[in-house]
Amino acid sequence: MEEIRSKELFEAAKRHIPGGVNSPVRAFGSVGRTPRFIASASGDKITDVDGNEMIDYVCSWGPGILGHAHPRVIEKVQEACSYGLTYGAPTEKEVILAELIAELIPSMKVSRLVSSGTEAVMSAIRVARGYTKRDKIIKFEGCYHGHSDGLLVKAGSAALTVSVPDSAGIPADYTGNTLIASYNDKDSVEKLFLAEPDSIAAVIVEPVAANMGVVLPENGFLEFLREITAQYGALLIFDEVITGFRLAPGGAQEYFQIEPDLTTLGKIVGGGMPIGAYGGKREIMEMVSPLGPVYQAGTLSGNPISTTAGIETLKILAEDQDIYRRLEDKAKKIADVVRNVAGESVCVNQIGSLLSIFFTSEKVTDYKSAVSSDKDRYAEYFGYLLDRGIYVAPSQFEAMFLSDAHTEEDIKYTCRILEEYLRQ
Length: 424
Ligand code: KE4
Hints:
The protein is α/β, with parallel strands linked by helices. It has 13 helices and 16 strands.
Protein backbone atom coordinates (compact mmCIF):
# COMPACT_ATOMS: atom_id res chain seq x y z
CA MET A 1 0.00 0.00 0.00
CA GLU A 2 1.41 3.36 -1.10
CA GLU A 3 1.99 5.98 1.63
CA ILE A 4 3.70 8.61 -0.56
CA ARG A 5 1.21 11.45 -0.11
CA SER A 6 0.75 10.70 3.59
CA LYS A 7 4.52 10.94 4.03
CA GLU A 8 4.62 14.27 2.18
CA LEU A 9 1.75 15.68 4.22
CA PHE A 10 3.26 14.41 7.48
CA GLU A 11 6.50 16.30 6.73
CA ALA A 12 4.55 19.43 5.86
CA ALA A 13 2.37 19.04 8.94
CA LYS A 14 5.40 18.77 11.21
CA ARG A 15 6.54 22.20 10.06
CA HIS A 16 3.55 23.96 11.62
CA ILE A 17 1.82 21.49 13.96
CA PRO A 18 3.48 19.89 17.04
CA GLY A 19 4.43 16.36 15.98
CA GLY A 20 2.41 16.93 12.81
CA VAL A 21 -0.88 16.11 14.50
CA ASN A 22 -3.64 17.80 16.43
CA SER A 23 -3.89 14.97 18.93
CA PRO A 24 -0.88 12.88 19.99
CA VAL A 25 -2.19 9.35 19.43
CA ARG A 26 -2.69 10.15 15.73
CA ALA A 27 1.07 10.38 15.19
CA PHE A 28 1.42 6.58 15.20
CA GLY A 29 4.37 7.06 17.60
CA SER A 30 4.03 3.71 19.33
CA VAL A 31 3.54 1.68 16.16
CA GLY A 32 6.40 3.14 14.14
CA ARG A 33 4.50 3.86 10.94
CA THR A 34 3.65 7.01 9.00
CA PRO A 35 0.21 8.20 10.01
CA ARG A 36 -2.31 7.83 7.23
CA PHE A 37 -3.76 11.21 6.26
CA ILE A 38 -7.44 10.58 5.62
CA ALA A 39 -9.21 12.07 2.62
CA SER A 40 -12.74 10.70 3.12
CA ALA A 41 -14.86 8.19 4.97
CA SER A 42 -18.15 6.43 4.37
CA GLY A 43 -19.82 3.57 6.22
CA ASP A 44 -17.13 1.36 7.75
CA LYS A 45 -14.40 2.56 5.40
CA ILE A 46 -11.87 5.37 5.49
CA THR A 47 -9.78 6.31 2.45
CA ASP A 48 -6.38 7.93 2.80
CA VAL A 49 -4.75 10.53 0.55
CA ASP A 50 -2.94 7.78 -1.40
CA GLY A 51 -6.27 6.20 -2.24
CA ASN A 52 -5.90 3.29 0.20
CA GLU A 53 -9.32 2.18 1.44
CA MET A 54 -9.33 0.65 4.93
CA ILE A 55 -11.90 -0.94 7.22
CA ASP A 56 -12.05 1.48 10.14
CA TYR A 57 -12.08 0.13 13.71
CA VAL A 58 -11.16 3.50 15.26
CA CYS A 59 -14.41 5.23 14.24
CA SER A 60 -12.89 8.56 15.27
CA TRP A 61 -12.33 7.08 18.79
CA GLY A 62 -16.02 6.43 19.32
CA PRO A 63 -18.35 8.97 17.68
CA GLY A 64 -18.77 6.79 14.59
CA ILE A 65 -21.18 4.25 16.06
CA LEU A 66 -23.44 4.55 12.99
CA GLY A 67 -20.50 4.43 10.58
CA HIS A 68 -19.10 7.41 8.70
CA ALA A 69 -21.30 9.91 6.85
CA HIS A 70 -24.62 8.36 7.81
CA PRO A 71 -27.05 9.75 5.17
CA ARG A 72 -29.64 10.97 7.68
CA VAL A 73 -27.03 12.76 9.79
CA ILE A 74 -25.33 14.35 6.78
CA GLU A 75 -28.63 15.54 5.35
CA LYS A 76 -29.65 17.21 8.62
CA VAL A 77 -26.23 18.78 9.12
CA GLN A 78 -26.15 20.13 5.54
CA GLU A 79 -29.60 21.61 6.05
CA ALA A 80 -28.59 23.12 9.41
CA CYS A 81 -25.49 24.73 7.89
CA SER A 82 -27.66 26.73 5.52
CA TYR A 83 -29.22 28.46 8.54
CA GLY A 84 -25.84 29.60 9.89
CA LEU A 85 -23.19 27.86 11.92
CA THR A 86 -23.35 29.48 15.33
CA TYR A 87 -25.31 32.22 17.03
CA GLY A 88 -23.99 32.37 20.60
CA ALA A 89 -27.60 32.39 21.66
CA PRO A 90 -30.01 29.69 22.83
CA THR A 91 -31.71 27.52 20.22
CA GLU A 92 -34.54 24.97 20.14
CA LYS A 93 -32.06 22.23 19.25
CA GLU A 94 -30.35 22.59 22.62
CA VAL A 95 -33.71 21.95 24.29
CA ILE A 96 -34.33 18.92 22.08
CA LEU A 97 -30.88 17.46 22.80
CA ALA A 98 -31.17 18.06 26.55
CA GLU A 99 -34.56 16.30 26.50
CA LEU A 100 -33.14 13.39 24.49
CA ILE A 101 -30.22 13.02 26.91
CA ALA A 102 -32.60 13.02 29.90
CA GLU A 103 -34.86 10.48 28.17
CA LEU A 104 -32.04 8.07 27.29
CA ILE A 105 -29.99 8.63 30.45
CA PRO A 106 -32.57 9.31 33.18
CA SER A 107 -29.93 10.20 35.78
CA MET A 108 -29.05 13.23 33.62
CA LYS A 109 -32.19 15.18 34.53
CA VAL A 110 -30.26 18.40 33.98
CA SER A 111 -27.29 18.72 31.62
CA ARG A 112 -25.02 21.34 30.16
CA LEU A 113 -23.43 21.09 26.69
CA VAL A 114 -19.77 21.94 26.16
CA SER A 115 -17.37 21.34 23.25
CA SER A 116 -15.28 18.35 24.28
CA GLY A 117 -15.08 15.48 26.72
CA THR A 118 -12.24 17.22 28.51
CA GLU A 119 -14.43 20.25 29.10
CA ALA A 120 -17.28 18.04 30.30
CA VAL A 121 -15.11 16.27 32.86
CA MET A 122 -13.35 19.44 34.01
CA SER A 123 -16.73 21.07 34.59
CA ALA A 124 -18.30 18.06 36.32
CA ILE A 125 -15.44 17.94 38.81
CA ARG A 126 -15.81 21.65 39.51
CA VAL A 127 -19.53 21.13 40.16
CA ALA A 128 -18.82 18.18 42.44
CA ARG A 129 -16.38 20.28 44.46
CA GLY A 130 -18.80 23.21 44.56
CA TYR A 131 -21.69 21.01 45.64
CA THR A 132 -19.84 19.04 48.34
CA LYS A 133 -17.54 21.92 49.37
CA ARG A 134 -14.72 19.38 49.36
CA ASP A 135 -11.50 19.50 47.36
CA LYS A 136 -10.17 16.01 46.75
CA ILE A 137 -11.15 13.62 43.98
CA ILE A 138 -10.28 10.00 43.36
CA LYS A 139 -9.46 8.75 39.88
CA PHE A 140 -8.12 5.39 38.75
CA GLU A 141 -4.70 4.66 37.33
CA GLY A 142 -5.04 4.00 33.61
CA CYS A 143 -8.33 5.83 33.25
CA TYR A 144 -8.21 8.92 31.03
CA HIS A 145 -10.62 11.78 31.48
CA GLY A 146 -9.24 14.40 29.08
CA HIS A 147 -6.32 16.74 29.51
CA SER A 148 -7.35 19.16 32.27
CA ASP A 149 -4.47 19.86 34.67
CA GLY A 150 -5.84 18.10 37.75
CA LEU A 151 -6.44 14.87 35.83
CA LEU A 152 -3.13 14.50 33.99
CA VAL A 153 -1.64 12.66 36.92
CA LYS A 154 0.15 9.44 37.74
CA ALA A 155 0.53 7.61 40.99
CA GLY A 156 2.94 9.41 43.24
CA SER A 157 5.25 7.69 45.66
CA ALA A 158 3.45 8.88 48.80
CA ALA A 159 1.79 6.29 51.00
CA LEU A 160 -1.60 7.84 50.26
CA THR A 161 -0.91 7.43 46.55
CA VAL A 162 -1.40 11.11 46.07
CA SER A 163 -0.67 11.87 42.49
CA VAL A 164 2.06 13.76 40.69
CA PRO A 165 1.69 15.56 37.35
CA ASP A 166 1.90 13.28 34.33
CA SER A 167 2.72 16.14 31.99
CA ALA A 168 5.17 19.02 31.93
CA GLY A 169 3.61 22.38 32.62
CA ILE A 170 1.43 21.30 35.53
CA PRO A 171 2.45 22.77 38.90
CA ALA A 172 2.87 20.04 41.52
CA ASP A 173 0.31 21.70 43.78
CA TYR A 174 -2.33 21.39 41.06
CA THR A 175 -2.46 17.63 41.50
CA GLY A 176 -2.33 17.48 45.30
CA ASN A 177 -6.12 17.14 45.37
CA THR A 178 -6.16 14.19 43.01
CA LEU A 179 -5.89 10.80 44.71
CA ILE A 180 -5.20 7.66 42.74
CA ALA A 181 -6.72 4.23 43.21
CA SER A 182 -6.37 1.14 41.08
CA TYR A 183 -9.16 -0.11 38.86
CA ASN A 184 -11.08 -3.11 40.22
CA ASP A 185 -9.27 -2.77 43.54
CA LYS A 186 -11.86 -1.96 46.22
CA ASP A 187 -9.25 -1.81 49.00
CA SER A 188 -7.32 0.92 47.20
CA VAL A 189 -10.49 3.05 47.25
CA GLU A 190 -11.47 2.21 50.83
CA LYS A 191 -7.97 3.12 52.05
CA LEU A 192 -8.31 6.62 50.56
CA PHE A 193 -11.73 7.22 52.10
CA LEU A 194 -10.55 5.98 55.50
CA ALA A 195 -7.62 8.40 55.33
CA GLU A 196 -9.70 11.33 54.05
CA PRO A 197 -13.28 10.65 55.23
CA ASP A 198 -14.49 14.25 54.92
CA SER A 199 -12.50 15.72 52.06
CA ILE A 200 -13.32 13.66 49.00
CA ALA A 201 -15.73 15.45 46.66
CA ALA A 202 -16.05 12.70 44.08
CA VAL A 203 -14.83 9.48 42.59
CA ILE A 204 -14.57 9.65 38.81
CA VAL A 205 -14.43 6.39 36.89
CA GLU A 206 -14.76 5.07 33.35
CA PRO A 207 -17.48 2.48 34.07
CA VAL A 208 -15.76 0.41 31.42
CA ALA A 209 -12.17 1.55 31.11
CA ALA A 210 -11.15 2.06 27.49
CA ASN A 211 -8.00 4.15 27.75
CA MET A 212 -5.65 1.48 28.98
CA GLY A 213 -7.18 -0.73 26.37
CA VAL A 214 -10.63 -2.09 27.29
CA VAL A 215 -10.77 -3.22 30.92
CA LEU A 216 -14.09 -4.41 32.32
CA PRO A 217 -15.31 -3.66 35.84
CA GLU A 218 -15.22 -6.86 37.87
CA ASN A 219 -18.46 -8.04 39.49
CA GLY A 220 -19.46 -5.70 42.26
CA PHE A 221 -16.81 -3.05 41.59
CA LEU A 222 -19.17 -0.37 40.30
CA GLU A 223 -21.76 -1.25 42.96
CA PHE A 224 -19.00 -0.85 45.57
CA LEU A 225 -18.15 2.62 44.22
CA ARG A 226 -21.83 3.56 44.35
CA GLU A 227 -22.05 2.44 47.98
CA ILE A 228 -18.82 3.89 49.33
CA THR A 229 -19.37 7.32 47.73
CA ALA A 230 -22.89 7.46 49.22
CA GLN A 231 -21.52 6.33 52.59
CA TYR A 232 -18.93 9.13 52.72
CA GLY A 233 -21.04 11.88 51.10
CA ALA A 234 -18.91 11.96 47.94
CA LEU A 235 -20.37 12.05 44.44
CA LEU A 236 -19.96 9.24 41.92
CA ILE A 237 -19.10 10.54 38.46
CA PHE A 238 -19.36 8.13 35.52
CA ASP A 239 -17.16 9.32 32.70
CA GLU A 240 -19.22 7.95 29.80
CA VAL A 241 -17.47 9.89 27.05
CA ILE A 242 -16.81 6.53 25.39
CA THR A 243 -19.49 4.27 26.89
CA GLY A 244 -22.35 6.78 26.65
CA PHE A 245 -24.91 5.59 24.06
CA ARG A 246 -22.37 2.90 23.07
CA LEU A 247 -22.94 0.09 25.56
CA ALA A 248 -26.69 0.67 25.57
CA PRO A 249 -29.01 3.56 24.67
CA GLY A 250 -28.48 4.70 28.27
CA GLY A 251 -24.77 3.89 28.30
CA ALA A 252 -22.91 1.90 30.93
CA GLN A 253 -25.25 3.05 33.68
CA GLU A 254 -28.13 1.31 31.87
CA TYR A 255 -25.97 -1.71 31.02
CA PHE A 256 -24.90 -2.18 34.67
CA GLN A 257 -28.03 -0.64 36.22
CA ILE A 258 -26.10 1.76 38.44
CA GLU A 259 -27.06 5.40 38.85
CA PRO A 260 -24.14 7.85 39.26
CA ASP A 261 -24.63 11.35 40.61
CA LEU A 262 -23.03 13.00 37.59
CA THR A 263 -22.24 11.74 34.10
CA THR A 264 -19.93 13.13 31.46
CA LEU A 265 -20.49 12.58 27.75
CA GLY A 266 -18.71 13.29 24.48
CA LYS A 267 -18.19 11.66 21.09
CA ILE A 268 -21.51 9.94 20.17
CA VAL A 269 -23.64 12.69 21.74
CA GLY A 270 -22.37 14.97 18.98
CA GLY A 271 -22.56 12.42 16.17
CA GLY A 272 -19.02 13.32 15.10
CA MET A 273 -19.19 17.07 15.64
CA PRO A 274 -17.32 18.81 18.48
CA ILE A 275 -19.26 18.30 21.69
CA GLY A 276 -19.29 17.26 25.33
CA ALA A 277 -21.94 17.26 28.02
CA TYR A 278 -22.15 16.85 31.76
CA GLY A 279 -25.20 16.45 33.91
CA GLY A 280 -27.00 14.64 36.66
CA LYS A 281 -29.28 15.26 39.59
CA ARG A 282 -31.15 18.55 39.56
CA GLU A 283 -29.99 19.67 43.00
CA ILE A 284 -26.37 19.16 41.94
CA MET A 285 -26.66 20.80 38.53
CA GLU A 286 -28.46 23.80 40.05
CA MET A 287 -25.00 24.76 41.25
CA VAL A 288 -24.06 25.74 37.69
CA SER A 289 -23.96 29.36 36.54
CA PRO A 290 -26.06 31.40 35.91
CA LEU A 291 -28.33 29.54 38.39
CA GLY A 292 -25.66 28.74 40.95
CA PRO A 293 -22.16 29.71 42.06
CA VAL A 294 -20.14 27.26 39.91
CA TYR A 295 -18.99 29.13 36.82
CA GLN A 296 -18.73 27.41 33.43
CA ALA A 297 -19.17 28.84 29.94
CA GLY A 298 -18.37 28.25 26.26
CA THR A 299 -18.65 30.17 23.01
CA LEU A 300 -19.69 27.20 20.90
CA SER A 301 -21.46 25.19 23.60
CA GLY A 302 -24.65 23.71 22.13
CA ASN A 303 -23.99 25.14 18.67
CA PRO A 304 -26.59 24.40 16.00
CA ILE A 305 -24.39 22.04 13.96
CA SER A 306 -23.16 19.82 16.82
CA THR A 307 -26.66 19.62 18.28
CA THR A 308 -28.13 18.72 14.88
CA ALA A 309 -25.64 15.89 14.39
CA GLY A 310 -26.13 14.72 17.97
CA ILE A 311 -29.92 14.79 17.83
CA GLU A 312 -30.06 12.79 14.58
CA THR A 313 -27.54 10.24 15.86
CA LEU A 314 -29.37 9.70 19.16
CA LYS A 315 -32.72 9.48 17.35
CA ILE A 316 -31.38 6.72 15.10
CA LEU A 317 -29.99 4.84 18.11
CA ALA A 318 -33.25 5.24 20.04
CA GLU A 319 -35.41 4.14 17.08
CA ASP A 320 -33.55 0.90 16.37
CA GLN A 321 -32.27 -0.58 19.61
CA ASP A 322 -31.53 -3.85 17.88
CA ILE A 323 -28.38 -2.01 16.81
CA TYR A 324 -26.83 -2.90 20.17
CA ARG A 325 -27.32 -6.62 19.55
CA ARG A 326 -25.85 -6.28 16.06
CA LEU A 327 -22.86 -4.36 17.42
CA GLU A 328 -22.20 -6.94 20.15
CA ASP A 329 -22.49 -9.84 17.67
CA LYS A 330 -19.84 -8.28 15.44
CA ALA A 331 -17.45 -7.61 18.32
CA LYS A 332 -17.99 -11.13 19.68
CA LYS A 333 -17.16 -12.65 16.28
CA ILE A 334 -13.79 -10.89 16.29
CA ALA A 335 -13.10 -11.70 19.96
CA ASP A 336 -13.97 -15.38 19.44
CA VAL A 337 -11.65 -15.79 16.45
CA VAL A 338 -8.74 -14.26 18.37
CA ARG A 339 -9.39 -16.37 21.46
CA ASN A 340 -9.77 -19.57 19.43
CA VAL A 341 -6.55 -19.03 17.49
CA ALA A 342 -4.30 -17.33 20.01
CA GLY A 343 -5.55 -19.07 23.15
CA GLU A 344 -3.81 -17.95 26.35
CA SER A 345 -1.06 -16.02 24.54
CA VAL A 346 -3.30 -12.95 24.29
CA CYS A 347 -5.99 -11.45 26.47
CA VAL A 348 -9.14 -10.28 24.71
CA ASN A 349 -11.45 -7.99 26.65
CA GLN A 350 -14.76 -7.36 24.91
CA ILE A 351 -18.02 -5.79 26.00
CA GLY A 352 -20.72 -4.59 23.62
CA SER A 353 -19.02 -3.01 20.62
CA LEU A 354 -15.76 -2.33 22.44
CA LEU A 355 -12.81 -4.68 22.50
CA SER A 356 -9.05 -4.82 22.97
CA ILE A 357 -6.52 -7.50 22.12
CA PHE A 358 -3.67 -7.39 24.66
CA PHE A 359 -0.46 -9.19 23.73
CA THR A 360 0.04 -10.66 27.17
CA SER A 361 -0.81 -13.99 28.73
CA GLU A 362 -2.04 -12.17 31.85
CA LYS A 363 -5.71 -11.46 32.43
CA VAL A 364 -5.92 -7.68 31.97
CA THR A 365 -7.98 -6.28 34.83
CA ASP A 366 -6.15 -3.05 35.68
CA TYR A 367 -3.39 -0.68 34.59
CA LYS A 368 -0.56 -2.88 35.91
CA SER A 369 -1.68 -5.92 33.94
CA ALA A 370 -2.46 -3.79 30.88
CA VAL A 371 1.09 -2.44 30.73
CA SER A 372 2.43 -5.99 30.90
CA SER A 373 1.42 -6.28 27.24
CA ASP A 374 4.09 -6.60 24.56
CA LYS A 375 3.95 -3.24 22.82
CA ASP A 376 6.38 -4.32 20.09
CA ARG A 377 4.10 -7.25 19.26
CA TYR A 378 1.17 -4.83 19.14
CA ALA A 379 3.08 -2.58 16.70
CA GLU A 380 3.79 -5.59 14.48
CA TYR A 381 0.10 -6.63 14.62
CA PHE A 382 -0.95 -3.05 13.80
CA GLY A 383 1.34 -2.90 10.74
CA TYR A 384 0.23 -6.33 9.50
CA LEU A 385 -3.41 -5.26 9.57
CA LEU A 386 -2.73 -1.79 8.16
CA ASP A 387 -0.90 -3.25 5.17
CA ARG A 388 -3.97 -5.37 4.50
CA GLY A 389 -6.47 -2.55 4.68
CA ILE A 390 -7.56 -2.83 8.30
CA TYR A 391 -7.22 0.28 10.47
CA VAL A 392 -7.12 -0.37 14.20
CA ALA A 393 -6.00 1.92 17.02
CA PRO A 394 -2.30 2.84 16.69
CA SER A 395 -1.77 2.05 20.36
CA GLN A 396 -2.17 -0.99 22.58
CA PHE A 397 -3.91 1.21 25.13
CA GLU A 398 -6.90 2.21 23.05
CA ALA A 399 -10.04 0.33 22.05
CA MET A 400 -11.31 -1.30 18.90
CA PHE A 401 -14.70 0.26 18.03
CA LEU A 402 -17.44 -1.41 15.98
CA SER A 403 -20.12 0.49 14.09
CA ASP A 404 -23.50 -0.41 12.64
CA ALA A 405 -21.92 0.08 9.23
CA HIS A 406 -19.39 -2.76 9.59
CA THR A 407 -20.59 -5.35 7.07
CA GLU A 408 -20.61 -9.13 7.56
CA GLU A 409 -18.18 -9.35 4.66
CA ASP A 410 -15.74 -6.89 6.25
CA ILE A 411 -15.98 -8.63 9.63
CA LYS A 412 -15.28 -11.96 7.90
CA TYR A 413 -12.27 -10.48 6.08
CA THR A 414 -10.98 -8.98 9.34
CA CYS A 415 -11.32 -12.34 11.11
CA ARG A 416 -9.45 -14.06 8.27
CA ILE A 417 -6.55 -11.60 8.46
CA LEU A 418 -6.46 -11.81 12.27
CA GLU A 419 -6.32 -15.60 12.06
CA GLU A 420 -3.56 -15.39 9.43
CA TYR A 421 -1.51 -13.06 11.64
CA LEU A 422 -1.99 -14.99 14.85
CA ARG A 423 -1.14 -18.31 13.22
CA GLN A 424 2.16 -17.14 11.76
P1 KE4 B 1 -12.02 14.80 24.40
O1 KE4 B 1 -11.57 16.07 25.13
O2 KE4 B 1 -10.88 14.16 23.63
O3 KE4 B 1 -13.27 15.04 23.55
O4 KE4 B 1 -12.47 13.75 25.49
C1 KE4 B 1 -11.60 13.41 26.52
C2 KE4 B 1 -12.00 12.06 27.09
C3 KE4 B 1 -12.67 12.02 28.29
N1 KE4 B 1 -13.06 10.84 28.84
C4 KE4 B 1 -12.80 9.66 28.21
C5 KE4 B 1 -13.24 8.38 28.83
C6 KE4 B 1 -12.13 9.65 26.96
O5 KE4 B 1 -11.87 8.48 26.35
C7 KE4 B 1 -11.72 10.87 26.39
C8 KE4 B 1 -10.97 10.93 25.07
N2 KE4 B 1 -10.72 9.69 24.44
C9 KE4 B 1 -9.56 9.64 23.57
C10 KE4 B 1 -9.44 8.22 23.06
N3 KE4 B 1 -8.99 7.33 24.05
C11 KE4 B 1 -9.62 10.65 22.48
C12 KE4 B 1 -8.64 10.43 21.36
C13 KE4 B 1 -7.53 11.46 21.39
O6 KE4 B 1 -7.10 11.86 22.49
O7 KE4 B 1 -7.12 11.86 20.27
